[in-house]
Write a structure and sequence with these properties.
CATH topology: Rossmann fold
Mean pLDDT: 93
Structural class: alpha/beta
Largest sheet: 7 strands, parallel
Strand content: 15-25%
CATH superfamily: NAD(P)-binding Rossmann-like Domain
CATH architecture: 3-Layer(aba) Sandwich
Low-confidence stretches: none
Shape: globular
Length: 260
């Protein structure tokens, strides 16, 4: 019997690598992102290399109607979701008083609302079938306040909290929820956030392939939180034992551009 995975943000970075891993293991893939051309290229690769079926759903998750449209298209194709990967997300960089409010609304729609809505729509079927896995992309940003990216860091704190709570609620149902919390990762993320010059991304940056592999392993094992990289694993501990004000100042320093 075929298995199906839905991956948002599948056109590049961590989402692209997760789609490869899922297809390798025999999952048919529903690929969601804004760029149809990139999704079509990925779909052709998955079908050629792994002989799986694909469905391309080009949608912009910052649009409030996108989630319902995705659900309707999946339902029309008579596909049930065994794995849901909520990978799509983007940052907005700058002081809150200066940043564009519409950009932040769009970010919250993608990072928080769409992720929650897709989970709501697909988790019920998983529970009914007593089988399913959900992977939500959080971040090490979820563990600390983030001056100069205040709303983004808060959105990832939501993802982590939501994932942990839902994982607890679903114990015994056959459905697991995993929050993947990487540190800075080499994707198109920094460019979209206009933060290529910040100290944070000029330091040690992971590659999307290794982050995806860690997240995939953790999801398949039913782990609730996956933090790739030894130094990243220290962040929650340091955040707990250090004065909150000191943590916030350090994050601010890391977020600042080198020229600042």
């Amino acid at each position: 019997m075929s298995k199906t995975a839905l991956i948002t943000g599948a056109s590049g970075g961590i989402g692209y690598e997760l789609a490869l891993l899922l297809a390798r293991d025999g999952f048919d893939c529903i690929l969601v992102a804004r760029s149809r051309d990139k999704l079509d290229e990925l779909a052709a690769r998955l079908e050629s290399e792994f002989r799986v079926k694909t469905l391309v759903v080009a949608r912009d998750l910052s649009k409030p109607t996108a989630v319902d449209e995705i659900y309707e298209e999946v339902s029309a194709a008579s596909m049930s979701i065994d794995v849901l990967v909520n990978n799509a997300g983007f940052p907005v960089y700058g002081r809150f008083v200066d940043t564009d409010w519409q950009a932040e609304l769009d970010m919250l729609q993608v990072n928080v609302v769409a992720l929650t809505a897709l989970t709501k729509l697909f988790v019920r079927g998983m529970v009914e079938r007593r089988n399913g896995r959900i992977l939500n992309l959080a971040s090490t940003a979820a563990f600390v306040p983030g001056p100069l990216m205040a709303v983004y860091y808060a959105s990832k704190a939501y993802v982590l909290s939501f994932s942990q709570a839902l994982a607890n609620e679903l114990q015994g149902t056959g459905v697991t929820v995993t929050a993947l919390a990487p540190g800075p990762t080499r994707t198109g993320f920094q460019k979209r956030g206009v933060m290529e010059d910040s100290r944070l991304v000029r330091g040690q940056v992971a590659d999307a392939k290794s982050v995806a592999a860690a997240g995939y392993r953790g999801m398949m094992r039913g782990k609730t939180i996956v933090i790739p990289g030894f130094s990243n694993k220290l962040i929650p501990w340091v955040a707990r034992v250090s004065p909150r004000g000191a943590v916030t100042r350090v994050v601010r320093r890391m977020q600042e551009r080198v020229s600042d």
